[in-house]
Amino acid sequence: MPKRILSGTVTSDKNEQTITVLVERRFKHPQMKKTVRSSKKYRAHDPQNQFKVGDIVRIEECAPVSKSKRWQVVVEASA
Questions:
Q1: Above 60 in pLDDT, residue 79?
Q2: For residue 71, what are the CA distances in angstroms to 27, 36, 58, 65?
Q3: How far is Cα 42 from Cα 40, in angstroms, rounded to an integer?
């Protein structure tokens, strides 16, 4: 099974080797037929502490690194 890759914006880099990424998705509501925006925050492993707040990054599923981290940063996405 392939690993999921998501793209989002870094909202926090205060923790050591960890960033918080806000991933937003859009979908059409099944009954109202209106486009709805939904967002979710993921905590991702950033071993070199190279990403700062506002960066657009891609994250990939991985084995659990800690209690809350199941994602790792792949590469910075081009804006």
A1: no
A2: 23, 25, 10, 8
A3: 7
For the chain, the domains span: 5-76
**Cα separations in angstroms, 43 against 50, 72, 78:** 15, 8, 20
pLDDT at residue number 33: 95
CB distance 21 to 39 below 8 Å: no
Q: Which of 26, 10, 29 is nearest to 71 (CA)?
A: 10
- CATH class entry, domain 5-76: mainly beta
Confidence band for 77, pLDDT divided at 50, 70 and 90? low
Q: The whole model's pTM is what?
A: 0.87
Q: What is the C-alpha to C-alpha distance for residues 46 and 19, in angstroms, rounded to an integer?
A: 7
